[in-house]
Amino acid sequence: MGVPRPERERGVYGISVAAELVGTGAQNLRLYEARGLLEPERTGGGTRRYSAEDLDRLRRIGDLLEAGLNLAGIGLVLDLEAQNTKLRAEKEEQQWLATASIPAS
Fold first, then answer.
1. All domains of the chain in start order, with CATH
2. pTM for this predicted structure
């Protein structure tokens, strides 16, 4: 048995349910995957399973499409947002480490 994952990361929604929840078609989800915009979990038989995090990402893709971006532009935006999130976390960790240093005795 594998290590349990947080519920938001666990793929539980089939493609038709995921498409309905985010208000798009299943074919769009396949296209987004083909373009590398998301990577849903797969069952042993190859069936796509979407997580809550995947649904959030799909909603973000929809927002960016409504704003007029094409799929290539959306890929760049999503990559930059992920890099920004990582850098902010690193900065916060460095700040915490700087303030949590043990005083010399």
1. 7-99 (1.10.1660.10)
2. 0.80
- Which 3-state string (H, E, C) describes the chain? CCCCCCHHHCCCECHHHHHHHHCCCHHHHHHHHHCCCCCCEECCCCCEEECHHHHHHHHHHHHHHHCCCCHHHHHHHHHHHHHHHHHHHHHHHHHHHHHCCCCCC
Q: What is the pLDDT of residues 61-82, one digit of tens each?
A: 999 999 999 999 999 999 999 9
Q: How far is CA 86 from CA 64, 93, 105, in A?
A: 21, 11, 35
CA–CA distances in Å: residue 36 to residues 1, 29, 75, 99, 104: 29, 11, 8, 40, 50
| Residue 58: both structure tokens together | 């799909």
